[in-house]
Amino acid sequence: MSKILLLSVVMSAAIWSTNASAEQEHFRHMMFRESPYAPYRGIYPMDGKDTEKAVHYEFSYDDEGRVTRISHKLDDQTVPLHGGFDTFIWFAPEVRIAYSDGQEVHTYYGTDGVQIHAHGQVWRAVYSLDADGNRTSLEFFDKDGAPSANAWNITRYEWRPSEDGHIFEKRFNPAGEQEKMRPVLEFYEVKLEYDRDGKLSFMRNYGLDHTPTNNSSGAGIDRITYDLNGNFIRWQVYDKDGNAVEGNRPMVHLGEHLYDDKGNKIGMRGFDRHGVRMPFSWGAIMEETSYNQQGVRIAFRSYRPDWSLDANFAFDYSKDLSRQLSIKSMDANGQLKDDPRLNGGAVLQFSQDDAGNIVRTFKRADGTPITSDDE
């Protein structure tokens, strides 16, 4: 068996847990996943006594050490994600996993324990497994059991091993056509290269005809680097021949994530192929995120290349973190400021109607509401 196929078996069976006999474990964060081929992995393990003080992920296991549930919690209460960066390719407060011969089924739940559609119309995500337990495909279904698509217009993933022991991945949309990895990442078929610890190190674009290919930005390879805690700290962009380029959506050669000592991502910045700081394609030279003591995002700021403030958002929540109350846009002096990213307003308020649906209300800095006629 190739090393990556063997690794996949190990990942499916035990790498989910640092202790296969444990019924539950707790982690502050989840390891980055570019592809749903990889399993969920917790990083920054927590002592049980700390779970009442900070948001975290609770992993539950069956008698075989396989993960059966992951919940985002504060103490014993499941809470929303509130803009966290950890659950890429998950997008729900809780996922439950069931196993059967040849299948692994994921379903998604809200904070009240009621099943929900996640990331588009994904009610069930069904992995097919080969005889060795390796993932070979993933299909999405809606509440009625019909094939459905996620928010990236993907309805099916397919994986097969490469001759050198790595993994090829293709994605398909509802029309059966190959689909990009994400709307903002123009890689079609990709070769996923994992290191000996199961972390994705290289992703190579093979286009639509199984040939190393540059996309429209000139990018053909992404390299991903991690620190010793398992944080995704850096990506680097190359063309298909391995030459450094500025490409993909951010249009930098090297992007860097900065973390605090608890693993919260507090900053992001970019560099060109010569190591010189440069802005991302959306104009920011630097992005900063702040967190409260419970590990929840409370502020986001971005700066223009002249280091003037471009965005300054504050996020407010209920005391128990069960609901987000508002997003506010402010100037450098902390005064409310209208912003096009808030529909031209300075405040976005969240409330609930009698049916429990989230109602969004935009208001200008002077307090006047923005009506549908204004939009």
UniProtKB/TrEMBL annotation:
Keywords: Signal. Residues 1-22 form the signal peptide. It comes from the Bacteria. Gene3D superfamilies: RHS repeat-associated core. This is YD repeat-containing protein.
